[in-house]
Specification:
- The chain is an alpha+beta fold.
- The protein has helices at 32-43, 60-65, 85-95, 110-136, 140-165, 178-184, 187-197, 208-218, 221-226, 230-239, 258-269, 286-291, 311-321, 334-360, 364-389, 402-408, 411-421, 432-442, 445-448, 454-473; strands at 14-15, 22-27, 49-52, 74-77, 80-83, 249-253, 275-278, 300-303, 306-309.
- The protein folds into four domains: 2-95, 3-Layer(aba) Sandwich (Glutaredoxin), CATH 3.40.30.10; 110-239, Glutathione S-transferase Yfyf (Class Pi), Chain A, domain 2 (Up-down Bundle), CATH 1.20.1050; 243-326, Glutaredoxin, CATH 3.40.30; 331-474, Glutathione S-transferase Yfyf (Class Pi), Chain A, domain 2.
- It has 20 helices and nine strands.
- The strands form two sheets. Strands 1, 2, 3, 4 and 5 form a five-stranded mixed β-sheet that branches. Strands 7-6-8-9 form a four-stranded mixed β-sheet, with helices on one face.
- It is elongated.
- Residues 109-243, 333-470 form the GST C-terminal domain.
Length: 474
């Protein structure tokens, strides 16, 4: 399985004293799955380099190391990546059997090893999904159902601890084992959820063995060094006002609309969950008409029952309403913010207006005039990118910003223009900075999750051109 992942060459990896092994962990605080790996490495007494990851703008190292899931944690051992927390913990135990003062994390007996793996899978397949529903449910009903399932999983794990420990301190017996590590990585989050939900999960009366185990595990030296501070987790959770964590978001859109795509991109870069409602623009819903009675158009973002209309207004609202989610889209400096708003408006008022006009022109002469205006707008945006990016990858600098999202929504139609007409709006000779920016933006995970398929978009574009041609004839 590990052969699915390419070897990773890194020059700046910590070498363990005398071992000849180089270990690097890609992670992010306070991921409980990264914490699992940190616990295993700590119990084994292994040195490693920790590389913090930005999960909105994922590093090339992470994408190359985990091309299947593109997630943390990833452990890179002598250039070879190992993915998925439970697999990584087993790998650490098997690759370093003599490391650390404690016993092996996996039992020596094949049957007991199978039992341990079963309960690790139970933690991931039953306990974690129920906990996520309790923690991130969009409605009180979802949270209540999640808590019900979570407490049922706790009851099952209480019995598992009794059977596995045989009256000793841990699932692994006298010493910490792999089940302890799998569940132990979640302890800070469980305690934070207890604070936020106001309900005990490891209850001393209903699950006395687990409650005592959690206290005992948390007092281990390695756990005290590795487990995230509970107050910090609570504070981070309260700041991260993700949809489903008290906020309900619904987006009314149409799949091909670049304006609806802007809202989707902003939500994606912010890491926000939302319900999406596809609108039939020839038979508009009552929800759309009542939410946007002035223009009666998509997109409309409905946040806790309150509608926000117009794509640029929506993107700014998302950034301001969820300041701690994902990356900030608008600059903090008022002048830089004004500049970003200017160029976002320029994209709509000059670039898109003339480009759309070119696609609807009746004569070649009209089309040529419209395209001349379009390429003049492209030239100005090329200069704007140079000025705003200051040599960095995006209009927003090192990270995607408001202008990137505004322009990024039209990438699909740029590609369609090339596919259907052999004309690329941004090309390497006329606008090399924007040409490189387009490919760079489109390669981001948050963009790939949203941008429509070029083939499908091309079919839609041909249909619309046929409709415009028929209307012009009539």
């Amino acid at each position: 399985m590990l052969g699915l992942f390419p070897s990773v060459s890194q020059s700046s990896v910590v070498e363990m004293a005398g071992s000849g092994d180089e270990l690097m962990l890609l992670g992010k605080w306070p991921s409980p799955f990264v914490t699992r790996v940190e616990l295993a490495l700590g119990l084994k007494g292994l040195s490693y380099e920790y590389v913090k990851q930005d999960l909105v703008n994922k590093s090339e190292l992470l994408l190359a190391s985990n091309p299947v899931h593109k997630k943390i944690p990833v452990l890179i051992h002598n250039g070879k990546p190992v993915c998925e927390s439970s697999i990584i913990v087993q790998y650490i135990d098997e690759a370093f059997p003599d490391a650390g003062a404690g016993a092996a994390l996996l039992p020596a007996d094949p049957y007991e090893r199978a039992v341990a793996r079963f309960w690790v899978a139970y933690v991931d397949d039953k306990f974690v999904p129920a906990w996520v529903a309790t923690f991130r449910g969009k409605t009180e009903e979802e949270k209540a159902e999640g808590m019900k399932q979570l407490l049922a999983a706790v009851e099952t794990l209480e019995g598992a601890l009794k059977d596995c420990s045989k009256g000793k301190p841990f699932f692994g017996g006298d010493t910490v084992g792999i089940v302890d590590v799998a569940l132990g990585g979640l302890i800070s989050w469980v305690k934070a959820t207890e604070v936020l939900a106001g309900s005990k999960i490891f209850d001393e009366e209903k699950a006395p063995l687990l409650a005592a185990w959690a206290q005992r595990f948390g007092e281990l030296d390695v756990a005290e060094k590795v487990l995230p501070d509970v107050d910090g987790v609570v504070e981070a959770s309260e700041r991260k006002t993700m949809a489903g964590g008290g906020d309900e978001l619904k987006l009314l859109g149409m799949w091909a609309s670049p304006f609806a795509l802007r809202a989707k991109l902003a939500l994606s870069f912010k890491g926000l969950s939302y319900d999406y409602v596809e609108e039939d623009l020839k038979n508009k819903s009552e929800l759309l008409l009542s939410s946007n009675p002035v223009h009666k158009k998509v997109p409309v973002l409905i946040h806790n029952g309150k509608p926000v209309c117009e794509s640029q207004v929506i993107v700014q609202y998302i950034d301001e309403a969820f300041p701690d989610a994902g990356v900030p889209l608008l600059p903090s400096d008022p002048y830089d913010r004004a500049v970003a708003r200017f160029w976002a408006a320029y994209i709509d008022d000059k670039l898109l207006k003339s480009w759309l006009q070119a696609s609807m022109c009746k004569t070649e002469q009209e089309k040529a005039a419209a395209m001349k205006e379009t390429f003049a707008a492209v030239a100005n945006l090329e200069a704007a990118f140079k000025e705003c990016s200051k040599g960095k990858p995006f209009f927003g600098g090192d990270a995607v910003g408001y202008v990137d999202v505004t322009l990024g929504a039209v990438i699909g139609f740029v590609r369609v223009g090339e596919a259907l007409h052999g004309m690329r709006l941004f090309d390497a000779s006329r606008s090399p900075l924007l040409d490189a920016w387009l490919d760079r933006f489109a390669a981001l995970d948050a963009a790939k999750a949203v941008l429509p398929d070029t083939g499908r978009l091309a079919e839609y574009a041909k249909m619309k051109q046929a409709e415009w041609a028929a209307a012009a004839t009539n």
